[in-house]
Structure formats: C-alpha cells, structure tokens
Amino acid sequence: MKILVTGGAGFIGANFVHQTVEERPDAEVTVLDKLTYAGNRASLAGSGDRVTLVQGDIADADTVDPLVAESDIVVHFAAESHNDNSLNDPSPFVRTNLVGTFTLLEAVRRHGVRYHHISTDEVYGDLDLDDPQRFTELTQYNPSSPYSSTKAGSDLLVRAWVRSFNVPATISNCSNNYGPYQHIEKFIPRQITNVIDGIRPKLYGAGQNVRDWIHVRDHNRAVWTIIERGRIGETYLIGADGEQNNKEVVELILELMGREASEYDLVADRPGHDLRYAIDSTRLREELGWRPEFRDFRSGLADTIAWYEENESWWRPQKAAVEAAYAAQGQ
Ligand code: NAD
Ligand code: TDX
C-alpha cells in the first residue's frame, strides 16, 4: 500500500509515520512536507527505508499531482496549526489550510485516489464550562480564530468534493493531542521545557480554559480505523474523554517534575480564547469499535515529560526564539 502523508515531519504526522511503519509491513510511505518552522526532518529519524521525505508545498499543484498519482491513499495532516500564530499573521493559514487542501482535492479527484482529511474539534467553536453537551458530528460549525476558520473551510471543501465529484474521502475532527515530537510553541511542551530551563510555566488568563486531551497514538489509531472501516463521505469525531483545565495540567506537570504546584505565572490571555472543547466520540466507538488505549493522563504525561528530558537536542535549537516571541506579546 502506497501512502502519501502530508505534514509527516510535523507532530501528529511524524507519529503517524512511525506507527504505520511499525504496525503495517506492507506500507510504503511518502511524506510531503514543506519543512516550515514546525516541520523537522529529525522527527522521521529511524523510520527506515520504507519512508521517503519529499520537501514541497501542498499548495503547489506541480509538486502534488505526480505524488498523488502514484499513491493508493492520501492522509492529509499538513497545516499551519498554531492559533497564536494565526492571530499574528493569518496569511499562511489561508494559503496552506485552504489553498493547500483544494490543491490536494483536485489531485485526488483527477486520479481517483482515496483521501483522509485530518481536522480539529475547533471548527465547532467553544462550549460553556457547565454545558452538559459535547461536540458531535451534528454540531454546527462556529470557528473562532483564523486557524480554526481555515480548518473549517478545508472541511467544507472536502464535503463539497465528495458530494459534487464523488471523491472517496473521510474526515476526522480530533481534540487536543499530546505526546512526543510536539512543537514547543504548544501548551504542554512549552511548559515542560520551561520547567527544564527553570522558567515558570505561563498560563493564559486565569487558566480556567478546558481542553479535551488525547494521546497522539490514540488519535493515529483512530485515523487508521477510519481509513480501514469508515464510511466514505462521513465525518468522525475523535476524543478520549480527557477534559482538564489548563491550570490542572500545569499543576500536574509541576508535580511530576518535582516542583511546587504553585510555581506558575498568569500572563496575558489569548484574544478570542476558546473556553472549552469537549468531544463525544460515540459514533467512532459504536460504529467502528475504536477505544483509546492511553486512559491514564498522568502516566501519558509522565512519559511525555521523559521524552522531552531525553530529547533535548530535538527541541533546544528553537527554545530561545519561541520564548522571545511569547515574551514580546506579554505571554
Ligand atoms: P504541526 O504544526 O506540528 O505540523 C504541521 C506540518 O505541516 C509541519 O511538518 C509543516 O512543515 C507542514 N506544513 C505546513 N505547511 C505546509 C505546506 N504548505 N505544505 C507542506 N507541508 C506543510 O501540526 P500538528 O499538530 O501535527 O497537526 C497536524 C494536523 O492535525 C493539522 O491538520 C491540525 O489541524 C490537526 N489537528 C491537530 C491537533 C493538535 O492537538 N495538535 C488536534 C486536532 C487536529
Ligand atoms: O503558554 C501557553 N499557555 C496557555 O495557557 C500556551 C501556548 C497555551 N495556553 C493555553 C491556550 C489553550 O487554552 O493552553 C491551551 C492549549 O493551547 P495550544 O497548545 O496552543 O492548543 P489549542 O489552541 O487548544 O489548539 C490545539 O488543539 C487543537 C492545536 O494547536 C490545534 O492545532 C488543534 O487543532
């Protein structure tokens, strides 16, 4: 099976490539990745000779077309993925998330190739802290940020290409991932590497915002489940019942790293900061039989901390610049 993985040098994509090579002896993987600031060749080290990395842009049809033509399936992870960056400069979000997805869809349409689209729960907007409802596949789209609105637009392009052109596609919308190879601009790795460096973790606002955490391996197992058993044209929400507020997560990181739970700072809030995300993954569980394996957030987080402690050479080159950029905006 020839698999084209876009964004395979990023966090979730790189984990997907490693898992695919480990678990599927018949898989030949081509990674198409622009190697932006978020992509790292080193994340694919050790993945073996069944993985080929092509550096290129998903919005460039001349690059995309021949790679899609020779693939059995395209799994599309590539994106500009960080909300804070999208508030500072939305333009690469529009190009990569919208034009890039459009370019891939046109290629899979031309060549009749199976396509799986990776998306986010942020397309649904946010929930009140005490709302008993969680997001389902029927929740109305209501994105808040330039990032989430471009992801929402990309999902709608996929739905239209299924309906109008019979493109054989599925979509998944997942909650917040954690695990190895996540860029240190993101919440959990930023705080782990801060503590390693003797910097106090930084919580936006009052730290009350809730995210629904899932281990990246559980996300990727769900993606394989949908590729193999999902209904064409369907959307599946992926989540592992992992709601925690940001303050609880920071306190747990501090405790697991041997510090006082109160050693954090409250900093400027993110403009338009979504309050709470929560996923109801009943469809994925009942229709396709998926279950999360990482059910203990504490031990998954401890493993993630150990990974950042053991792989300092992977993240160190970016740490000073990431912290300088946050400091410049009071975060
Ligand atoms: P990431 O930022 O770590 O990685 C993105 C990758 O895409 C990088 O390797 C980057 O170089 C590549 N890329 C960016 N622009 C490109 C372009 N124009 N052409 C080719 N490659 C390009 O992101 P991530 O956290 O791994 O997220 C992967 C996907 O999962 C995204 O679609 C994101 O919206 C979605 N998602 C992420 C989360 C999460 O918690 N991180 C949750 C739900 C959904
Ligand atoms: O230093 C920080 N302090 C802080 O309190 C950072 C970087 C973040 N936060 C807060 C903001 C959020 O409430 O932590 C929470 C998580 O922040 P991010 O890691 O930036 O993730 P989020 O904005 O929730 O989006 C993530 O999950 C959904 C991914 O980055 C997206 O790509 C995905 O779609």
Q: Structural class of the helices, strands and pairings?
A: alpha/beta
Terminal Cα span: 45 Å
Query: What does the largest sheet look like?
Result: 7 strands, parallel
Task: Classify the oligomer.
Answer: single chain
Distinct small molecules: nicotinamide-adenine-dinucleotide, thymidine-5'-diphospho-beta-D-xylose
What proportion of the residues form beta strands (DSSP E)?
15-25%
Q: What is the total tally of β strands?
A: 13
Number of helices: 11
Give the uncertain stretches in residue-range form.
none
**Rg measurement, Å:** 19 Å
Helical content stands at 40-55%
Sum up the overall morphology in one term: globular
Q: Summarize model confidence as the mean pLDDT.
A: 98
Give the topology string: H per helix, E per strand.
EHEEHEHHEHEEHEEEHEEHEHHH
User: What's the CATH topology name of the domain at 2-182 and 213-242 and 276-294?
Assistant: Rossmann fold
Strand order of the largest sheet: 3-2-1-4-5-6-11
Going by CATH, the architecture of the domain at 2-182 and 213-242 and 276-294 would be 3-Layer(aba) Sandwich
What topology does this entry show?
Layout: E1 2-6, H1 11-23, E2 28-33, E3 51-55, H2 61-69, E4 73-76, H3 83-88, H4 91-111, E5 114-120, H5 146-165, E6 169-174, E7 177-178, H6 187-196, E8 202-204, E9 210-212, E10 214-215, H7 216-229, E11 235-238, E12 243-245, H8 246-256, E13 265-267, H9 282-288, H10 297-310, H11 312-328
The structure holds nicotinamide-adenine-dinucleotide (NAD) and thymidine-5'-diphospho-beta-D-xylose.
Residues 6-7, 9-13, 32-36, 38-39, 57-59, 77-81, 96, 100, 118, 120, 151, 174, 176-177, 183 line the site of nicotinamide-adenine-dinucleotide (NAD).
